[in-house]
Amino acid sequence: MLGGMPDGAADIVVMKFGGTSVAGAEQIKRAAGRIVAARERGKRVVAVLSARGKTTDELVAAAHEISERPVAREMDMLLSTGERISCALCAMAIHDMGHEAISLTGSQAGIVTDSSHTKARIIDVRADRIRQALEQDRIVLVAGFQGVSTDSRDVTTLGRGGSDTTAVALAAALDAEVCEIYTDVRGVYSADPRIVPDARMLDQISFEEMLEMAASGAGVLQLRSVEYARNHGVRIHCRSSFEDGPGTLVVSEEEAMENPFITGVTHSDAEARVTLTGLRDEPGVAGRIFGALADANVNVDVIIQNEPVGDDQLADLSFTVDRGELTLAREVIDGLGDVAVQVKAEEQIGKVSVVGAGMRSHPGVAAKVFETLGSEGINIEMISTSPIKISCVIGADRVKDAVLALHAAFELGDDAIRPEDGTGNTTSTVAG
Ligand code: ASP
Ligand code: MG
After folding, report:
1. Is residue 380 part of a domain?
2. Ligand 1 mean position to 55 CA, how many Å?
3. pTM for the complete prediction?
4. Ligand 1 mean position to 49 CA, how many Å?
5. Residue 92: which domain range?
6. pLDDT value for 259
7. How many domains in the chain?
């Protein structure tokens, strides 16, 4: 409802636009057009914008040109500017389209975080200012990926991809009907379509599956945003900002109509591994190592440790981290002094994962994954599983082959033969 009509009952939608969707003037105007169209359909709109194109990468690079180890607080001051630029420009475009818009920084929008710079967590959303602006019939633009710590009163950022989490947190706080994530792909796919030409776009995916997909390399949504959405029951709708398509809905498992056996294959070719050999086999050692890594905020992924087999009774331990965190991880381990006889770091590590809620009740999926990789001559270096995911650590140079082989083996492609009722891929071929 527009123009002076009582607006209190109008539904709120949160629309988030990623970097490519606001890259240049044309794209910003297009995003503004989508926002205005939603307003004209009677919605109250809060839009969360990312930094334009490669802006965040460029800001990171600029910092490293100045300093080898940029101070985290200042890094956040720097990085938070990208999103502000997008919002101010988009507000201008909306004004030219005849609507009232106001841009807000994360801090102005009431996004309160802890004070861990460059990977802060949202702890509260005080959305009164947004609500007020909506009541005044304004479109609200919020700079994504940032907040403010009420402890330190400093600007913080939420980690790469953090605008997704800003959007979901606002949708939760405002009780929005949906959180729409506009991006440069049409939705969530059964595998990265840049690697697998016949990857299938999913109509729906459950939070649980999306969590595993995001955690294991699917770049569509920041992991934390999915966690937040699951915890607060926020419906996420991933869609393209460049075309009108159905997109992918991320919903609760009960709501997910389509329950395919295997949902997708994800990958990462940007992992690294640290191996410690000659660890004392006694209580407290792993706690010390991973406690120190956690204190330094290093996200550890796959961990392997075996019982010692040699006469010396010393154990070996390996774990993987994002390649970008390898230097920090090494520093942390080195800082522990004599914890291991030898520490080795490897940079070119990859990972491929198969995700699907259906594997809970069907044995044989792991075997099929391993056999498929084996028949491609791909060596599996580490394995980790959850009830709905199997991940294999492999060489970074074999990741593409692995994704293609697994996607084909589980018949996830667009041209795969499906049962008449459309419930997804058949299980008979994969149960063995
Ligand atoms: N601009 C930030 C990034 O590139 C945050 C985001 O886009 O979500 O990671
Ligand atoms: Mg993103």
Report:
1. yes
2. 9
3. 0.87
4. 9
5. 12-184
6. 66
7. 2
Establish if 197 belongs to a structural domain. Answer: no
What would the DSSP string read from start to end of 222-249?
Answer: -HHHHHHHHHHT--EEEEESSS----EE
At residue 338, the pLDDT reads: 83
Residues near 192 by beta carbon (within 8 Å), at least 6 away in sequence: 199, 218, 266, 267, 403
pLDDT tens-digit map of 278-316: 998 889 999 999 999 999 989 999 999 888 887 888 999
Identify the CATH number of the domain in which residue 128 sits: 3.40.1160.10
Residue 9, pLDDT > 90, answer no
User: Does 306 lie in the same domain as 167?
Assistant: no
Q: How far is the CA of 198 from the centre of ligand 1 (A)?
A: 28
Ligand that comes closest to the CA of residue 81: 1
28 & 141 share domain: yes
What would the pLDDT profile of 361-388 be if each residue is shown by its tens digit?
888 999 999 999 999 999 999 999 999 9
Is residue 359 assigned to a domain?
yes
Q: What is the CA radius of gyration of the chain?
A: 23
Answer yes or no: do 308 and 400 share one domain: yes
Helix, coil or strand: residue 79: helix
User: Average of pLDDT values for 232-238?
Assistant: 96
- Please identify, by atom number, the ligand 1 atom nearest to the C-alpha of residue 50: 7
**Residue 421 forms part of a structural domain:** no
Four-point Cα dihedral 409, 382, 297, 207, nearest 10: 30
Number of the ligand 1 atom closest to the C-alpha atom of 57: 4
Looking at residue 309, its pLDDT comes to: 83
